[in-house]
Amino acid sequence: MTFAVHGPTRRAYNGVALRQTDMLARLQRCWLALLVLAALAVAWSLTRIGASPWLAALLTIVVLNVHAWVLAFEFAWLRRGVPGAALPRPAASALVAAWWGEVLTGIRVFGWRQPFRSNAISDQLTGAQGRRGVVLVHGFVCNRGLWNPWMHRLREAGVPYTAINLEPVFGSIECYAALVDQAVQRVTTATGVVPVVVAHSMGGLAVRAWLRDPTHAARVHSVVTIATPHAGTALAHLAFSKNTRQMRPGGPWLQALQRVEAESPRPPFTCYFSHCDNIVFPASHAMLAGATNQHVPGVAHVHLAFHPPILDDVMSRTRA
Predict the structure, then answer these.
(1) Which of 66, 71, 61 is nearest to 97 (CA)?
(2) Of 161, 206, 286, 304, which has the highest C-beta tally within 10 A?
(3) What pTM, to 2 d.p., does this model score?
(4) d(C-alpha 38, C-alpha 197), whole Å
(5) Are residues 292 and 268 in contact, defined by beta-carbon separation less than 8 angstroms?
(6) Strand 292-295 relative to strand 269-273: parallel, antiparallel, unpaired?
């Protein structure tokens, strides 16, 4: 079996040229470089003033792991709220464990896979006629590198798939619908079978935006969302970009989406969520009316994308 190379490409959607790039990888490489420079500057400054080498090493580690402190703020905010939908409030010990899992996952995803390995595993679309495929849609400030463990397993099992980059990174969720359409069409053309669509976080909203066209529901077998803010998230009140502002609970974009959905058919949805999600809270906001909503206790936002039973579920759908 051969693989299609995934890189900067030009395709078309409704006659409009689209370009798939990897701006997010470049941005994250720049951020990592700045972080390393900041850590080195701290270490050099402390050495110059005669500080203890142990103190210099400790503060250098603190700077390099600034994401851990950002995550701690998110979990503290999460802890103050109520999950909703009669879900239990997470214990402090569960939140600490979820925080630590997210810290380690963040290093792997944002420090390695996305900035340096986003194109390490190519799409698998050739020689797949008659086999149900998968479309992988990432979330905010992510790229296709998020899905590397998924792509590795799908490739080993011979399951066709494509993983897309949602760009512009800070643009409107509206513009991502074209990229979802393109990906669904690519897999369907390669296999002759409608695919399963899997979306993490904001990616689930991009899929729902694409499904507003009433003809699109029949083009997918089912949709699996992981930690998607279907009803928005409290963190969006700190929004700085158009797509994050669109995720404000009760905001105009979400309300408009819900109005259109009420009149459009929808394929089967399964929504995985957690009461320890540090990005989407209250946890009930990751649930969707009419969907199969599956609670995964004790797992944080990005870490949830690598929960083994979710991948097992998707693998079973490719055999249906």
Answers:
(1) 71
(2) 286
(3) 0.91
(4) 40
(5) yes
(6) parallel
